[in-house]
Amino acid sequence: MKPKLLLMVLLLFTSFAFSQTFDVNGTVLDASGMSLPGVNVKVKSSSQSTTTDFDGSFKLSGLSKGTVIVLSYIGFRTQEVSVSSNKITVKMSDDAKSLEEVVVIGYGSQKKREVTGAVAIVDSKTIETLKPIKVEQALQGTISGVNVTSQSGAPGAGLDIRIRGIATNGENKPTAIIDGYVGDLGLLNPNDIETITVLKDAQAAIYGTIGANGVILVTTKMGKKNSKPKVVYNTYTGFQETSRKLPTLNATEYALLLNESYANGGKPLPYPNVTGLGKGTDWQDEVFGKGVPIINHDISISGGSEKISYAVSGSHLDQEGIVGGDKSGFLRNTARVALGADVSEKLKVKTNVIYTYFTRKTLNENGLGSVLFNALNIPATFSAYDANGDFTIIPNSLGNEIINPLAQIENTYNDYNYKKINGNFGFDYKIFKGFVLSSSFGFNTSNSERKEFAKQISYGGKVFDVVQSSVTQSTVNDNDYSFDLFGTYTNKIGENHNIAGTIGTTIYKTWGKGLSGTGYDVPYNSWEFADLDLITTISKVLTSRSYTYDQRRLSYFARAQYDYKGKYLLSAMVRRDASTKFGPGNKVGYFPSVTGGWVVSDEGFFGESKTINFLKFRASYGTLGNDQIPNYGYIGILNGEATYVFDGELSGGRAQGQLPNPNIKWEEAQKFDVGADLKLFNDKVSIVTDYFIDTRKDLLIPNIPVSGINGTGAPGASAPTVNAGTVRNSGFEFAIDYKEKFSDSFSMNVGYNVTFIKNEVIKVNNGTGFIEGGAFAVGQQPPSRMEVGKPIGYFYGYKTDGIFQNQAEVNAHPSQLALGANAAPGDIRFVDVNNDGVIDTNDKTNIGDPIPEATMGFNLQMNYKNFDFALYTFASIGNDMVRNYERNLTDVNHLNYVLGRWTGEGTSNSIPRVTTGATANNNFSEYYVEDASYLRIQNIQLGYTLSPSLTQKVGISKLRLYGAVNNLYTFTKYRGFDPGASVGPTNRDQVSQSPIGAGIDYGFYPMPRTYLLGLNLNF
Q1: Closest Cα partner for 76 from 109, 57, 98?
Q2: Are 344 and 369 within 8 A, CB to CB?
């Protein structure tokens, strides 16, 4: 009896032990031992779930031994862990992060190890560290093959993205796809972005006629299912200053140099007595602000239940300009709502809507007569204000476009407001096992208003004088939508064969209208009364214009993917586009491509290498298109201006605009790429390398010269856009990243990337064999060209060979009289390139190239205990710039390099003499072309995170303070404000920036240096 009783008691205690519950405290780490916040932790077959905090910790209550918990996190392999005690530590597989990470590739996704195209990713962590004002800035120096340049340092100015070089003299910007629809990258709040994926090669062929310049895929942040509400608040405030001042001559230096110039020209000295002039006015100090404010706030709330996820965010940015303060300010507000829901086991729906509002004011910049151009050219002998306290009038001897820049700022009045709502609605429906039908409706709708007021004012007989005040107001409405419907089938055949197929269609339409009017005689000559409603003068001094547009595209696409054992990878795709931009004979285009890969490290013969963990070779080839030109280029439209005499009075009418070209069609880009992906030393080192050839045919070249009989110079008119050229970019990319955890307290990430590019024009079919562009000085021929065998936009001018030291050298050299004057000792010696014994226009040649030979980035992140440090740099090597910010008149100011001028034999062999007499020195030549290679420290940041054990007591999961400096310093030999000032002139289509004329510096508004103090709060 006793043994039976003992057995029953033992069974009772055993049963009690197995039914006992307890709380589980866990920690989640990545492969390097660093904590992972935000990991979803769920009890299997239960609704109980939580997420890890900033320290990677979580807590689950009421569990028993043997309970299985599931841990999942984007980019990591989902893991199941059986509970055996009240404390557990889970390490997420790091190779899952690098190889099993899901990569968006357009109308679908792939695991990173299976990607066979040249694809690069920037994640939210990098964006958060860089603190870019505009999203595009996060791509500079972080991805090989991508170069980002600013059109201006002014707040809100646009940025130009070039993927693998410049391929056309029309629109070169890539297409941005935001959550599946075409959008504007520059309007996004950077903190709303989860990842940015760049498709650089034929992988982008799935986008057909909009993919030739590359495709940037943006995925915005979504809430995580089964997670508590997470509140993130980020803010920073700081001040800005110019990153550079140019060393101009002070008053005394200027007066002495001008005296020398007049004496050399045989004229009386303008400053017989220079005593007491001192340093005079520093005009750059007058126009550059100090401590110019910038502030940003950003808040987001995200979370989700078992079937619903949500994310809501808002941001506010207010930035004044370092030139003109609020006269060149930028303010941006954004709001976003993103929702996802599992309606059933088969149906998932999602939506993401973004609202953007910004205002921007601008000054005259990047041209002759701009604010900074004036600040550099006005001598320090002039004061900013006269004896009466009014702005000083600058005499015409300095040029009729040079005025007091302070008066210019004061009398600049303009305002631009922009409102946009965009987003998408979509669903995924699982029809049967392996087949999912997806649909998405994306839209953009925006309204903008612009007002410009020209105050009646005189600057002393200058081109900027305004005889009659005027106000111009305009409003623009732009809209587009896209509807995508596609099905994706995936299946595994046997043990080794994996297939996937996608087929679908896209409908895209964009339409809009614009209206503008100008009225004169503004009441009280005042900005406060600058409104067309208040214009009371007769109707004949009121002018107005309007336009409408409507463009559509119908596309079909298909993609097939196959892999054998995950090591032999093949993908083929084709897209058919039909567009209303082109005439009946060229509406339809086909864009095929094929990509392949071989995971060598999975082969049996490769063995178990302790050094090489992963090795993949890949290749791609395909055809893509570019249709980024204005509408209706194939037909004639009366959208030009016309003024004629009717009944003895001037009357307004319409004239033909751009001449039609019925044979116009899209550009065709043939892209070839071979590359390799390599991981070494337990995945601590990652290497990606590519060689590419991108040949762009049938370039859409606007304004091809035609006979003047057609009247292409009339207002609103222009020569036709013609497919008239071929350009090839070839190059090599290399990127290496190193990640190491040295101890529990110290870890480090280091990244380096470099891109080498050769650009060459293969064909120009416009009748002359070249296309000119750009401007230098006043009255000279365009300094840039597109010509066969040369880089697009190369500088076309005279080679130089030092300075004539004596008359004997002048006599022994071919005559330079054809350039405007006989040479004399101290003048520039030009090279007789064609050896015909005379220096003339036939000796012009290639004297520089604005396209860099190489670009590179070096990035460093370190963590030591609660401290974090980040450094991002970018370098551009081999790009040239034209120094065009100094007016070539006698009395203007100069940079102080002219103090090293030639003053007698042997004194200088690089800088010519100064004189009021006639010389050929002002002709465009190598003297004005400088090496603009540079290395820029883009961002440096130091942060400190308070211990979670302290912050969590008040409900804060993360509290981080940091200090940062953006655009800290630029190492360069270039004399101008910014060696990255490569923006080109606007084409006649008023849409694209031409590379023919890029790299010419008129006094570029410099990128500001920004000092920031910031706070990151997570609740």
Answers
A1: 98
A2: no
Which uninterrupted H or E stretch holds 97? helix 94-99
- SS3 of 113, please? helix
Number of Cα atoms under 13 Å in the Cβ half of residue 257: 26
> Residue 33: what pLDDT?
61
Q: How many CB atoms lie within 10 A of CB 782?
A: 17
User: Do residues 205 and 624 lie in contact, with contact meaning Cβ atoms separated by under 8 Å?
Assistant: yes
Work out the mean pLDDT of the chain and round it to a whole number: 90
The pTM for the full model equals 0.88
Closest CA to 471 of 498, 488, 493, 453: 453
Rounded CA-CA distance 593/207 in Å is: 11
* Contact (CB, 8 A) for 660 and 633: yes
Residues 129, 258, single domain; the answer is: no
CB atoms within 10 A of CB 763: 14
Residue 586: φ, ψ to 5°: -135, 25
Rounded distance, CA 591 to CA 666, Å?
A: 11
Q: Which residues contact 654 (CB under 8 A, 6 or more apart)?
A: 638, 639, 640, 641, 642
* 300 close to 311: Cβ distance less than 8 angstroms: yes
Range scoring the smallest mean pLDDT among 314-318, 528-532, 625-629, 982-986: 982-986
Position of tokens 């586009």? Answer: 577
> Where is the domain boundary, 223, 251, 275?
223
Tokens of 389: 């306290």
d(CA 536, CA 529): 12
Boundaries of domain holding 26:
21-91
Domains in the chain: how many in total? 4
Compute CA distances 541 → 472, 522, 532, 538, whole Å. Answer: 12, 12, 12, 6
**Selection from 895, 1004, 1018 nearest residue 367 by Cα:** 1004
Write out the two tokens for 708: 């003047």
Please give the Cα distance from 686 to 574 (Å, whole number).
Answer: 32
Distance CA(667)–CA(323), nearest Å, equals: 40
Residue 284 carries which DSSP code? H
Nearest-angstrom CA–CA distance, 454 and 214: 41
CATH of the domain at 116: 2.170.130.10
